[in-house]
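In the lab's daily routine, each protein ends up as an entry in a very long ledger. A line of letters takes care of the sequence, but it says nothing directly about the fold. The fold becomes a row of whole numbers, each drawn from a learned catalogue of backbone shapes. The protein below has been through that process, and both of its lines are reproduced in full:
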Amino acid sequence: MKDRRRCFGKMQMEEKQHLLIRKGREVRIGPYEFEVLFYMLEHIGAVVSREEINEALPSRKRDGGRNVDSHIKNLRRRLDMHDVILSVRSVGYRIDEEKFYRKVTGKDF
């Protein structure tokens, strides 16, 4: 049974329910943004390619070449993580572990 739950400071993700809770409140993000964020947090600090992220999405959402970029843009905006989710030119994306930790806990690394 697929039942993954991740807690990061004041942010909690429950995969089974596609639920993101931040500072005690539910944050509404789309199901594909949820999958992208979950996958990136499983690989926090590492550079993940667009292809790797794309593989984490359902097959029906893999058709667009730039769909991952759109999901990343939405995550940055909705979670106010413009400086946390970084672009790695010609490769993909990376979550800056230190900045992410500060963002979700309010403390230094």
Remarks:
- The helical segments are 31-42, 50-56, 67-79, 97-105.
- Residues 83 and 99 are 8 Å apart (CA to CA).
